[in-house]
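Sequence in, structure out. Go.
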Amino acid sequence: MASCFSLLCLLHSVIYVVCGSLMMFYPIEIFDICHGKETASKLLGSTPHDHLLIRTSESLVGMLLVTIGINLFMVSFVKDREFQTFFSKGCILLHALMGVWRFYFERRVEDLARDWPRQAVGDFIFGLSWVFFLIFNWREKYD
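Output:
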């Protein structure tokens, strides 16, 4: 049981650390891959000042993702079953709120309107992995 939680946390941790590192150190390339060259050039701003602000913002978001990944790595070693359940429910809520954010706000941004469904599916899959953990946990608890 605990190994399933550890594995899930470590998997999410690696994904967050890698994505955050790429956002910090290769933001232009990530924009090109995720949004296409035309949209990426619009998202990077039209003036050097805009470009600097957007790059700084993306670096901070990347740093936040790395921090979340490190926290997930630390949490993966917790053996308390009640904490694991509580943490899983919090992760499900977080990913659901991210999907709601993408639906209500990101789809209104013209340059991001094309990408929000794909990102919302990613949020759904991340949340679903925690739901499967809860189902597995519940099944093991009552069998």
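Check: The CA atoms of residues 97 and 123 lie 9 Å apart. The chain has a mean pLDDT of 87.
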